[in-house]
Amino acid sequence: MINVNRLNKSVDGRKKQILREVSTRFEQGEMIGVVGPSGSGKSTLLRCLALREKWDGGEYTWDGETVIAGGGTGSQKYRSRCAYLEQNPSLYPERTALKNVLIGQVGQTPLIRRITGMVRSDDYMGAMDELEKFGLLDKAHVKAGKLSGGERQRVAICRALVHGAGFIAADEPVVGLDPQSAERVLTTLRTLCAEQGKIVVAALPMELAERYCSRIWGLYEGELKLDISGRRLTGEEKRSIELV
Questions:
Q1: Which chain positions lie within coiled-coil regions (predicted)?
Q2: Residue 131, domain CATH
């Protein structure tokens, strides 16, 4: 279980507050959709939860162990257990899908791996297994720059799993994808929760959050206004976060 208590986040020297006193908890196997108008703080929330942004204040615990106390970014031990999926995943375009899965995320890969593409041989089969699970085995030796948007997202998911992520924060992962590709990506994420007990928190359009997620968070002006499980939002709830 992950507990978040009074998360605060500001920018511009703390002149502009993005997240205000966000408190919640979530467990293994949950897929949570984050909805809200543009500028409500969804991306910042996801980056904070995935330990990609420094917290100005708040407490963060994971299975009873303290990750953040009073602010900060958390230790590398916990950052390595979190993955952050961007709208357009950062892959090495001249590397194959397999190499991207194995050598890790752009900006977080050790220099020697970036230069040589070297990987540990015992990781190879695990990476191929993940690519096969998500229908990408035939793309393993295709350069990432030649993959479709949906394929790139699934490669990023495979990469997160191979590198040990138990929690995935996905920032609008299906923007720009055709309906079939979007369905493949979201079904993949939902399967990870149901079959592997992963936690996924994804910023999504309302209709997709209601279709694929077991729980919906409504964010408005940096505050967590709604936390609804097992059903669609009512018209009144949608109006409370200005989605209608």
A1: none
A2: 3.40.50.300
